[in-house]
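Tokens for HIT domain-containing protein. Go.
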Amino acid sequence: MAELAVMNCLFCRLIHEDTARWVAQEAEACAFLPPDQLAPGHTLVVPARHHPDVFDIPPGALAATVALAQRVAAAMRTALGATGVNILSASGPGSEQSVPHLHFHVVPRWTGDGISTWPAGTSRHRLTGDPGVLLADALGRDREPRHGS
């Protein structure tokens, strides 16, 4: 059953069938050009194994994927003359994730390039309680303080 879900995944099929426009292929992560690019050189970086989102990926695989995204960003600066990059990702149904395989869009940017990848507004969602306190509690406030705090 799990193999069927993986083969129904667009990114897993690209990896398995070796049909993407590869920028890099490594043991734990891959990078390829999507058919619809936001900018010249826009690259998707994905874990080589199927992980639906940031909630389900083991920390080591996430670290390898992010490390490849960092190397791709550096290559954009040197090879494409990009003066910056946007690294974008969405995880889970409330995030507008389009393919249920964790992926990072690494988008090269140049001053005055005419695109904006930053959200244009703010969420209408409201919480009961202080978001900082709720997050700190969820992360375990009883841990050792850092940086002298």
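The chain has one domain: 2-123.
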